[in-house]
Design goal:
- The complex is a heterodimer of chains A (about 210) and B (about 80).
- Chain A has a domain of about 120 residues.
- In chain A, about 40% of the residues lie in helices and about 10% in strands.
- Chain A has a three-stranded antiparallel β-sheet, covered by helices on one side. Chain A has a two-stranded antiparallel ribbon with strand order 4-5.
- Helices cover about 20% and strands about 50% of the residues of chain B.
- Chain B has one helix and five strands, in the order βββββα.
- In chain B, strands 1, 2, 3, 4 and 5 form a five-stranded antiparallel β-sheet that branches.
- The relative contact order of chain B is 0.27.
- The chains are: A alpha+beta (about 210), B alpha+beta (about 80).
Amino acid sequence: MLKKSMFVVLALLLWFAVFQFDLPMAMATPPGTPSKSTAQSQLNSLTVKSEGSMTGYSREQFTHWISQGGGCDTRQKVLQRDADYFSGTCPVTSGKWYSYYDGVSVYLPSEMDIDHVVPLAEAWRSGASNWTAEKRKDFANDLDGPQLIAVTASTNRSKGDQDPSTWQPPRSGAHCGYAKWWINTKHRWNLNLQSSEKTELQSMLNSCSN
Amino acid sequence: MEKKTSIFTATHGVMTVEVGVISGELELLTTCDDEGILTLAVTYVGAEEWYTLPGQDYRLHDPRDHEVVHRMLATVLERS
């Protein structure tokens, strides 16, 4: 009897252990994620400026998602890159994604959005209104830096066009990475930032260990 | 067909169907037809595309209520 109940307890423990390991599957960080010290110097070098107007803005000013060859577009490329595993090649039909912003695991690609870490509307009022259409297209489909990331559609919608002074990822463990990606993208694309945005980025960056 | 517009600042943004939350200097457009059918749209001031506010099938029993509904909506959205 004792043996049997011990076996049950052991089985339960094992089950919990497996279940626990399943939850925090961290995704690989997107390309170009800077170290804390690099992000700090990049933040220091950004120009603080009040936001420009939205005159002339539309999402069509930032052509996306463009073809990346082999029948894949930018969205499909990021879905593949950020998946723990997936099946189907453009379109991806199923798989597993860990949504970094809210820590939710998702198995259907239709529930995932590709977030522009620095939103298109935010880019427009931070300097992109003066760019050529070609440059805006490159920005909107930037696979070289940490500007695109697969997250749940619900977090992407609640973020919308907001900067870190009004929206930060609901999972506090995501704040360090999010600040690094935001800073790096604004730095690479030479976009301005507001002082309230800078203050929040600094405090998020302070939460990084390295 | 009666149209009313208001410009307001949404610091923490307004939820839209097409692009999620939008923020900053926004313009609200409400349209009410003779039947009282109400449609709601919002844009960035000066931008080239409009977005839909969530919800649908809004119908006023009297189109003369359009004015007060528009003003209430603009006030609530500004606060958010």
